[in-house]
UniProtKB/TrEMBL annotation:
Pfam families: Peripla_BP_6 (PF13458). Keywords: Signal. This is Amino acid/amide ABC transporter substrate-binding protein (HAAT family). PROSITE patterns: PROKAR_LIPOPROTEIN. It comes from the Bacteria. Belongs to the leucine-binding protein family. Residues 1-26 form the signal peptide. Residues 37-383 form the Leucine-binding protein domain. Coiled coil: none annotated.
């Protein structure tokens, strides 16, 4: 059921935002009377299997909202409005995403929904957005798996992240930083992105001179990987690529170490982000995970936001996640201002017309498929940081190989 507009204002206003770094303050911008706050609603995994991501995403949203409000708020139809963020815990459960997203619209009056993380949580959010005809903007969900869940294309949902074809290529390109036998062992779970990524690694490997010699497939929540690890060892693969959730990645790495499987390059994709090193200590050293933010991506103020986030989340994907979610708020605020209204149809049209919007993440343009595709990089755990190691023109440190944390 389509939700009625919360506010109705004249169209044609332009965004009056000063993009501020996290914690910055600014005086109230002149012009326009103050209006009621505009609600941005987010259903996040604050607990559950993906609970490590939720507080980080919430922090990025809070920082984006705080910076916009400190700069005077959003100018919608000539009236200034503060943004109000409402967050609810989906407990890493897709069914909870559905229920809570509807509640954010119907009970809390959300004008725009903000995304969660991974396709399993962002896809049900997108379904609700289309059914309720209320816009949703998200990041941290690879775009092909997200698109593949709706063959007719999303109408009210928008995704800002990497394309999996490019993402899977980065694993092979980064592997070229050292000498290997070019044999690859895959470990992929059976969630949407595990299936999609595994198929892409299999199809892309020959293009880069690599051969998939073994692939393990298992359900999310697997705790014993020993049989798969032994088969990977027996295959002789120097390159190991996994697509697993964080708890599974930690268990897999511990067992690889215990069973003395030490490939020259190893990638715990999805599961090797913020908190991976805290759970593993020295065993995490040298693990590689793709990234999505760089100072060269045409962003405005992104370095300041990233540097501020490093104090809490370290130099790596945690801080990159803050930059991405901060930018989602900027995208939503820009669309609200250009729409001149909180009418969902008007905001959705404005989102679809987003072009070359400079955010802290990158310049954002949505194509007809409602994607804005970011360039993937490669990071590597080195002590307590995840510096970029590929591509060469963005690398901030030397690549470590073979994987130090797995060497017996």
């Amino acid at each position: 059921m389509r939700r009625k507009s919360l506010l109705a204002f004249a169209a044609g206003a332009t965004l009056a935002l000063t993009l501020a770094a996290c914690g910055a303050s600014a005086s109230q911008s002149p012009g326009g009377a103050a209006g009621a706050p505009i609600v941005l609603g987010a259903s996040l995994p604050l607990t559950g299997q993906l609970g490590g991501f939720g507080p980080l995403i919430q922090s990025g949203y809070e920082q984006g909202v705080a910076a916009i409000n400190a700069a005077g708020g959003v100018n919608v139809g000539g009236s200034k409005h503060q943004l109000k963020l409402v967050v609810k815990d989906n407990k890493s459960d897709p069914q909870q995403v559905t229920a809570l997203s509807k509640s954010l619209i119907n009970d809390d009056g959300a004008a725009v929904l903000l995304g969660s993380v991974t396709p399993p949580l962002n896809i049900p959010l997108s379904v609700v957005a289309d059914l309720e005809q209320v816009p949703a903007v998200m990041s941290l969900a690879p775009t092909l798996a997200w698109m593949g869940a709706n063959k007719d294309g999303w109408k009210y949902a928008y995704d800002v992240f990497v394309d999996e074809t490019q993402q899977t290529a980065v694993n092979f390109q980064a592997s070229d930083l050292t000498t290997t036998n070019r044999k690859v062992a895959l470990f992929t779970d059976t969630e949407e992105d595990g299936k999609a990524m595994g198929a892409l690694w299999e199809s892309e490997a020959p293009k880069y001179g690599y051969t998939i010699v073994y692939r393990a497939q298992f359900p999310v929540g697997t705790t014993d990987f020993s049989q798969f690890i032994q088969k990977a060892k027996d295959s002789g693969a120097d390159v190991m690529i996994a697509q697993v959730i964080p708890p599974d990645a930690v268990a897999l790495w511990k067992q690889m170490k215990a069973l003395k499987y030490s490939p020259k390059v190893a990638f715990p994709e999805k599961g090797g982000g913020f908190g991976f090193d805290q759970a593993l200590g020295d065993v995490a050293e040298g693990a590689c995970v793709f990234g999505w933010w760089s100072p060269t991506n045409g962003n405005v103020g992104g370095q300041a936001v990233y540097d501020a986030a490093k104090a809490k989340y370290g130099d790596g994907l945690g801080a990159q996640g803050i930059v991405a979610t901060y930018a989602v708020v900027q995208i939503a605020a820009d669309a609200l201002s250009r729409a001149g209204s909180t009418d969902p149809t008007a905001v959705n049209k404005a989102l679809s017309q987003t072009k070359d919007l400079a955010t802290v993440l990158a310049k954002i343009t949505f194509g007809p498929d409602h994607r804005s595709v970011l360039q993937a990089t490669m990071t590597q755990w080195q002590r307590a940081a995840q510096p970029t190691v590929w591509p060469a023109d963005q690398a901030t440190t030397k690549f470590l190989a073979p994987v130090p944390g797995l060497v017996s």
